[in-house]
Amino acid sequence: MPVSIDMTGKKGVVFGVANQRSIAWVISQRLAEAGAELAFTYQTERLRAPVEKLTSQLGTSTLFECDATDEEQVKAVYDKIASDWGSLDFIVHSVAYAERDDLGGPFSDVSLQGFRTALEASAYTLVPIARYGAPLMAESGGSIIAMTFDASVKVYPGYNIMGTAKAALENEVRQLAAEFGPSGVRVNAISAGPLPTLAARSIPGFNDMRRAHQERSPLKRPITHDEVANTALFLLSDLSTGTTGAIIPVDAGYGIMAL
Ligand SMILES: NC(=O)c1ccc[n+]([C@@H]2O[C@H](COP(=O)([O-])OP(=O)(O)OC[C@H]3O[C@@H](n4cnc5c(N)ncnc54)[C@H](O)[C@@H]3O)[C@@H](O)[C@H]2O)c1
After folding, report:
1. What is the band of 2 on the pLDDT scale with cuts at 50, 70, 90?
2. CATH class (in words) of the domain with range 11-249
3. How far apart are CA 143 and CA 183, in angstroms?
4. What pLDDT digit, counting tens, does each position of 122-179 carry?
5. pLDDT tens digits, 4-43
6. Most CB within 10 Å of its CB: which of 20, 191, 224, 232?
7. Could you tell me the residue ranges of all domains in the chain?
8. Ligand 1 mean position, distance from CA 22 (Å)
9. CA nearest ligand 1 atom 43, residue
10. Interval between CA 105 and ligand 1 midpoint (Å)
11. Dihedrals φ, ψ of 172, to 5°?
12. Does the annotation mark 159 as catalytic?
């Protein structure tokens, strides 16, 4: 008998929807189907209309502009959520960015500015998102998830500075989990296999990565958006209350293989 996850009565905010292929969007659809109430942020004014078109499909009109590298904007999102909802049950961080020039080519060519840009957008942003969000979860506990990739611990040529950013992000997940655990707030990350999205399109060799998953993973296929969304739903729900500080692979097993 299939087990369904009930998120009725739970409220959360999703950072990182850009279009219908965004991992954050598929996670949001699954959360809404499970009964959760959602608020969304979009990075810039340019994304407002397309994101609004998507979120209206879920009957949600709670949308905030938020460049997550701007702490004042992050704080403002939570201030509005605090006055509208009073409390929060979960947060989805699905945010990453690197300059195109810093993806592909020799890793050692990365500039200080390129390093800062990638680390700020893709790793640092989890810190203010957790810092200002966790106090809203303090009453009943809560769950925060971030999205990572296996390049945090292995070399994927072309992924370059994003691998460094994902290593930092995963370390933050553990440090934030330790800090907020006593308040009942859990912090975990999903390490997803390659999925065709806007962000993935800027990774040189992305198609080779998909092919390698197909050929070498134990499951002999690439993963799907839905598989990531189902794991996100589990981590954001009360079915995972014993899990924090974890990096959960959704990679068809690719990560366990040496050859
Ligand atoms: N697609 C994959 O193969 C894959 C695999 C593993 C992990 N991930 C991770 O999943 C997450 C989501 O990526 P995606 O593949 O869905 O691509 P996507 O391009 O749809 O999502 C990336 C999001 O980051 C947002 N963003 C970037 N900089 C921002 C900033 N300064 N402030 C606010 N938002 C900002 C973009 O607006 C966009 O919504 C990223 O962390 C990515 O590294 C993706």
Report:
1. low
2. alpha beta
3. 11
4. 999 999 999 999 999 977 789 999 999 999 999 999 999 999 999 999 999 999 999 9
5. 899 999 999 999 999 999 999 999 999 999 999 999 999 9
6. 232
7. 11-249
8. 7
9. 96
10. 21
11. -60, -40
12. yes
Single pTM value for the model: 0.98
Catalytic site residue from 10, 42, 132, 166: 166
- The token pair at 85 is 């909802």
At 145 the three-state DSSP class reads: strand
> Distance from the CA of 237 to the center of ligand 1, in angstroms?
22
20, 21, 23, 29, best to mutate for ligand 1 pocket (most atoms within 8 Å of CB): 23
Residue the block writes with tokens 């366990």: 256
Based on the residue annotation, tell me whether 154 is a catalytic residue of this protein. Answer: no
What is the tens place of the pLDDT at every residue in 42-53?
Answer: 999 999 999 999
Q: Which amino acid does the sequence have at 96? A: A
| Interval 170-188: pLDDT, tens | 999 999 999 999 999 999 9
Tokens of 1: 């008998």
**How far is Cα 10 from Cα 23, in angstroms, rounded to an integer?**
20
Atom of ligand 1 nearest to the CA of 200: 1
